[in-house]
Design goal:
Radius of gyration: 20 Å
Bound molecules: zinc ion
CATH architecture of the largest domain: 3-Layer(aba) Sandwich
Distance between the termini: 61 Å
Largest sheet: 5 strands, mixed
Strand order of the largest sheet: 4-3-5-6-7
Number of helices: 8
Structural class: alpha/beta
Order of helices and strands: HHHEEHEHEHEHEHE
CATH class of the largest domain: Alpha Beta
């Protein structure tokens, strides 16, 4: 087999949900396309990777230091919804009903896999809460064991703070593709919040 083609297949198969068979299909597709089209794809991937960084406040993806949600005057600054990853935030934003801010943890606590509180954006969350304007924190994590552990940890950490702590009545539909998310379920999950403290 051609060494450079094999290299492309290995690189593509590192992408999530791409097995070796799909990687082969993609690699062969790339080989069939005009060079200009392949260049555009490669340039776009690199340009996005270089331009997009993490918002300094909520850790959402952003091309600016502060993301559009955090800098918007139309958002309710008294509520922060804590989610695991940017995709969860996109899902909630797509449902279009939530007007508060976010905080992206960047993962879930998983001591067995070496993910401790220091590896997540937990200290930065606590720092944000020292501002009086925050009245409610919503734990918007999924329903997995790690999500439960993380939720409990946050609850114990934040219980000394003055604000209200709530969580979704139902977890976010973990791992679902954005276009398959049932917006009604999401809106209900947001509306039916349960008080933790
Ligand atoms: Zn932000």
């Amino acid at each position: 087999m051609l060494e450079s083609l094999e290299e492309l297949v290995i690189a593509l198969s590192k992408l999530p949900a791409i097995g070796r068979k799909s990687a082969w299909r993609l690699a062969l597709h790339i080989m069939e396309r005009p060079e200009s089209e392949v260049k555009h794809l490669a340039d776009t991937v690199l340009s996005v990777r270089r331009k997009v960084r993490r918002c300094a406040i909520c850790f959402n993806y952003s091309e600016q230091e502060i993301c559009a949600v955090c800098s918007s005057q139309a958002r309710d600054r008294s509520v922060i919804c804590v989610v695991e990853k940017p995709t969860d935030m996109f899902i909630i934003e797509k449902a279009g009903r939530y007007r508060g801010l976010y905080h992206i943890l960047g993962g879930l606590l998983s001591p067995l896999n070496g993910v401790t509180a220091e590896k997540l954006q937990i200290a930065s969350l606590k720092k944000r809460l020292t501002k009086d304007e925050v009245k409610e924190v919503i734990i918007g994590l999924g329903g997995s064991g790690d999500a439960e552990t993380t939720g409990l940890y946050l609850a114990s950490l934040l219980k000394s703070e003055k604000m209200k702590l709530t969580r979704f009545a139902r977890g976010l539909p973990a791992g679902l593709e954005l276009e398959y998310v049932d917006q009604l379920t999401l809106t209900q999950a947001l509306n039916e919040r349960i008080d933790i403290l």
